Amino acid sequence: MSKKETFGTVISNKMNKTITVIVKHPIAHKKYGKIINRTNRYYVDDPDNKCNIGDRVKIQETRPLSKNKRWKIIELIKN
């Protein structure tokens, strides 16, 4: 079974070895059809503290690493 992977943008890197990533999902409104951006916020493991705010990253689901951290960074796409 493959693990979920997605792309997101770093919005916070203030924690040690952890970043906060926001992922936007464009969906159509049920009644009117207008495209709406739904967002999810994930805590991502960043063991080298190499990410900065605004970076695009590829993240992958993993086992629970802490109370809230369930994702790890796969690839850093600099902005």
TrEMBL record:
Keywords of this entry: Chloroplast, Plastid, Ribonucleoprotein, Ribosomal protein, RNA-binding, rRNA-binding
CDD domains, per the entry: Ribosomal_uS17 (cd00364)
Location within or outside the cell: Plastid, Chloroplast
GO biological process, one term: translation
GO molecular function terms listed in the Swiss-Prot or TrEMBL record: rRNA binding; structural constituent of ribosome
GO CC terms in record: chloroplast; cytosolic small ribosomal subunit
InterPro entries: NA-bd_OB-fold, Ribosomal_uS17, Ribosomal_uS17_bact/chlr, Ribosomal_uS17_CS
Keyword Ribonucleoprotein: yes
One of the Pfam families matching this protein, by short name: Ribosomal_S17
PROSITE patterns: RIBOSOMAL_S17
SUPFAM superfamilies found in the cross-reference section: Nucleic acid-binding proteins
Primary localization class, coarse: plastid
Recorded superkingdom: Eukaryota
Its biological purpose: One of the primary rRNA binding proteins, it binds specifically to the 5'-end of 16S ribosomal RNA.
HAMAP family tied to this protein: Ribosomal_uS17_B
Quaternary context: Part of the 30S ribosomal subunit.
The family this protein is said to belong to: Belongs to the universal ribosomal protein uS17 family.
Record-given protein name: Small ribosomal subunit protein uS17c
Lineage: Eukaryota, Rhodophyta, Florideophyceae, Rhodymeniophycidae, Ceramiales
